[in-house]
Design brief:
With about 450 residues, the protein is of the alpha/beta class. The protein has helices spanning about 5-15, 25-40, 45-60, 70-85, 110-125, 140-155, 165-180, 200-210, 225-240, 255-265, 285-295, 300-310, 310-325, 330-340, 345-350, 355-360, 370-375, 380-385, 390-400, 405-425, 430-440; strands at about 100-105, 130-135, 160, 185-190, 215-220, 245, 270-275, 280-285. The structure holds guanosine-5'-diphosphate (GDP). The site of guanosine-5'-diphosphate has 18 residues, from helix 5.
Length: about 450
């Protein structure tokens, strides 16, 4: 995410970081580089200019040149400004009303249908919400099918009316269906066009007027850069929407849309999409995003993601198994699956401070666990729960079955044994013992 921008900002600020004292010339040079980095990331020219002007004013106001660590203070000022530019505090969505109605808008291909599913899934996981998805794209039967596929995948009901070509009537019927059947959130997916046009704008504004949603969200593909900002303006003029959803931030986006959109339409970015899977949704926190852009990682989000996947009941079961020495490969597999659900590996790595920069040229693909999973799948259930019986003929068979080598099987076994030992130690109040071991 934003690798290029991060790199360039890092280079621009690097000059200042190491210095005990800096000069006005240093600062001016740095700001020029910062502005260039923003422009390269496709940030709107005026915004980039205002940004550096503000940073400069703040730097002068805080007497950067005479402080003890001027470089660090500059980084902080840039970070604060970047946060401010992207929206200050995070803003949630309005879920008042019963049902609360959420209207999705945006161009075709921006990720509306995918995001509707992600949001439904996100709300459903909050336990108190029972969402209904409503398919209002009357032009493309495939779009209705797509929403049904998404609904099936996440276990959320989808309301559609294939014979009907009036999106206003369908959305109203959807809301009535929700009221009659105890759904407390209605998410309405609408038709998009490839570019802004009058027919589409009229249609979405008619729906908007007829159903008066609690929340109107504008979905935009972050890969579209400056265009994203222009499209946002056009939709905002008609809908006066409540918030922006930036999708496809997992891709190689330059970041311009994320940085410019808030100040152009003066509406907060509320969520981001970071992948095609239903779990790839994150609340947008400007400060955390600024940290990530400046290569400072985002440990808070990483921990939150881990917590989301954490199931207390499962954890208790696991603890018992470890205590009884029954932790097997099936449990190991489950752990891997949980990690995978946390999201795209490279994205996760980027949340560790410093790691994003270190790993930027390393190709971590999402199939990092493929080999391990294949090996475990090639074991019999008995072998999985009793790894100690794995002798060499079994290992040869497993290697063949999984398309790996005996060496790889051995390596996995070794890692597994080390892990089991470590877990056992942590369990038996051996935390201290382990600390001693680690200290050597
Ligand atoms: P719609 O026409 O606005 O409903 O867009 P879709 O939801 O059909 O999305 C268009 C394409 O973008 C699909 O192939 C999605 O899988 C993909 N997509 C949507 N959101 C994301 C995202 O956050 N990351 C990535 N990588 N792909 C996405």
């Amino acid at each position: 995410m934003f690798n290029n921008l991060s790199d360039k900002l890092d280079k621009a600020l690097h000059v200042l970081k190491g210095h005990g004292s800096i000069t006005e010339v240093n600062v001016a040079e740095t700001l020029k580089e910062v502005r260039r980095a923003l422009l390269d990331a496709d940030v709107n020219f005026k915004i980039a200019k205002d940004f550096t002007t503000k940073v400069k004013e703040k730097a002068l106001g805080q007497n950067v040149l005479t402080t003890l660590q001027p470089g660090q203070l500059m980084v902080k000022i840039v970070k604060d400004e970047l946060t401010e530019l992207m929206g200050g505090d995070a803003e949630g969505i309005n879920l008042s009303g019963n049902p609360s109605v959420i209207l999705m808008s945006g161009l075709q291909g921006s990720g509306k249908t995918t995001f509707s599913g992600k949001l439904a899934n996100y709300l459903k996981n909050k336990k108190t919400k029972k969402p209904l998805l409503v398919a209002c794209d009357v032009y493309r039967p495939a779009a209705i099918d797509q929403l049904h596929v998404v609904g099936d995948q996440i276990g959320v009901e989808v309301f559609s009316d294939r014979g009907n070509n009036d999106p206003v009537a369908i959305s109203k019927a959807g809301i009535a269906h929700a009221k009659a059947n105890g759904f407390n959130v209605v998410i309405i997916d609408t038709a998009g066009r490839l570019a802004v046009d009058e027919v589409m704008m009229n249609e979405i504004s008619n729906i908007h007027r007829a159903i008066q949603p609690q929340e109107t969200l504008f979905v935009v593909d972050s890969m579209t850069g400056q265009d994203a900002v222009n499209t946002a303006k056009a939709f905002n003029d008609v809908l006066n929407f409540d918030g922006v959803i930036l999708t496809k931030l997992d891709g190689d986006t330059r970041g311009g849309a994320a940085i410019s959109i808030k100040s152009v339409v003066n509406k907060p970015i509320k969520f981001i999409g970071t992948g095609e899977k239903m779990e790839a949704i994150d609340v947008f926190y400007p400060a955390r995003m600024a940290d990530r852009i400046l290569g400072m990682g985002d440990v808070v989000s990483l921990v939150e993601r881990a917590q989301e996947q954490f199931d207390e009941e499962e954890a208790r079961k696991l603890q018992k198994k470890i205590a009884k020495n029954q932790f097997g490969f099936d449990d190991f597999l489950k752990q891997i699956q949980q990690i995978k659900k946390m999201g795209n590996m490279k994205d996760l790595m980027g949340m560790i401070p410093g790691a994003g920069k270190m790993l930027k040229d390393v190709d971590i693909d999402d199939d990092a666990f493929k080999g391990i999973e294949a090996i475990i799948h090639s074991m019999t259930p008995h072998e999985r729960s009793n790894p100690s019986i794995l002798n060499s003929s079994r290992k040869i068979r497993i290697g063949k079955g999984s398309g790996t080598s005996v060496q790889q099987v051995n390596q996995l076994l070794k890692q597994f044994n080390q892990m089991s030992k470590m877990m056992k130690m942590m369990q038996g109040g051996g935390g201290k013992k382990m600390m001693q071991m680690m200290k050597g």
